[in-house]
Amino acid sequence: MPDVMTLVELGGPLAAIGGAAYARKAHPTAYWTTVGLPLSVVRLLASYCSTMDACGLTVEPSRLRALAVRATTRREVRPVPPRRGIPRPTSTGLRVRIRLAPGQEPADVAASSERLRHAWGVHAVHVVSLKPGVVELRLVGFDVLRKVKMPRQARSELLAVPVALREDATAFVRDYRTVPHQLVLGATLSGKSMFLRNLLTGLAAQPVALVGIDCKRGVELSPFAPRLSALATEPDEAAKLLPVLVREMEDRYDLIKARQGIAPTTPDEEITSDVWGLPEGERPYPIVVFVDEVAELFLVATRKDEERRDEMVTQLIRLAQLGRAAGIYLEVCGQRFGAELGKGATMLRAQLTGRVCHRGNDEASAKMALGDIAPEAVGVASTIPAEVPGLAVAGDSSGGWIRVRTPYLSLADAAATCRETAELVPDVLALEPFRPHAPAPPVTAPVTLAKPRPANG
Ligand SMILES: Nc1ncnc2c1ncn2[C@@H]1O[C@H](COP(=O)(O)OP(=O)(O)OP(=O)(O)O)[C@@H](O)[C@H]1O
């Protein structure tokens, strides 16, 4: 048994360790910048060559180098690591550029990222290919997705909204011009609405028409009514709105044809240019269509509903196939999106190239979102814990994927942004009949500190 003196002597260091552990957990950014960052820079600089060697990332030296080493020193000629740049510290970690040695590819470095993270004592190492032959190692000091803080330099541009934080501490930007249509999947309470909320408020300040189809009686999208150009809250209303959107798309195709001297008989599928080629004064406003709980559009009770469903699905598929050139983009949300939804479901899903997969009910749900674009991400998406709502795996058709999490945004703040930007609703004549009635802002009773007294008191 240790004597009293030993315990007293140990007290100081133990308290220091306890304090450091507490600081690391409670204030990760401050802890990282004051303690973790200098340690990691020293570790990286001191052990770069040996770590690269241990990870199998060194190559044989050139003949000239070998000759020079032999001529000038008595050292044995050792394999050389890829050349590195100067480490650049950031508030969440540090970055260092690496010029790949001949014969190496970014995947070789990415395969060693787990080993590198342990060697340098950081939370994660991400490898990003910057240009042929150059990769950037992004060392992240702590779990940035635990408490999301968007990077300060993340700015919205037209149709490009920084909507979530990526695990490499950069912004996940929803860019409609590069990925026109997206599918957002997740079980109930997984954070889909939060994702839509961030996206919608990001777009609210832009000259973009926002359209909502929310067949859960509008519970998700109604609070944003002041900024919406159109809102359908029942399948019947959606069945009226979708053909109007398709007609608007066809009119825009006619406009492009007229402007560019393309024969009016040319099929829409063969026109390669888009609304962005039109002069600014003639260019129609982009339209982003949010579909919340897409399964509600597919589910039918009677034979008559079946016809209506088929029509709506065909219209959605047409919008997804041809909408991009006409400046019409889809953001489709749901819990599951598989063949069991019925005719056209998988065809529509194939057109939605952007994928964001929140926690699902089972592995099959994750497969529906990511199986056809990034199969190796399915396992990661299936292990998202229920205690971290908003955490998701984002992939795109290029095969890349990354974990992301939206920042918390309260419904009241999002609704307030929509009220403040209500005058920015652009004029899209065809959507005018579907413009929702904006509910009046909640009136808060004035707070009085005086206690009411009975009249006869
Ligand atoms: N990024 C986040 N950070 C913190 N809390 C979050 C985040 N995303 C979601 N939440 C919280 O998790 C809960 C569920 O989120 P949300 O309503 O977005 O889920 P959902 O997938 O839309 O659920 P449903 O399908 O039932 O509407 C909410 O209380 C929300 O505040």
TrEMBL record:
Keyword ATP-binding: yes
Ranges of residues in domain FtsK: 166-367
Cross-referenced InterPro entries: FtsK/SpoIIIE/SftA, FtsK_dom, P-loop_NTPase
Stored Pfam families: FtsK_SpoIIIE (PF01580)
Keywords for the protein's UniProt record, in alphabetical order: ATP-binding, Nucleotide-binding
Chain residues that bind ATP: G186, A187, T188, L189, S190, G191, K192, S193
Name of the protein in question: FtsK/SpoIIIE domain-containing protein
Organism field: Streptomyces decoyicus
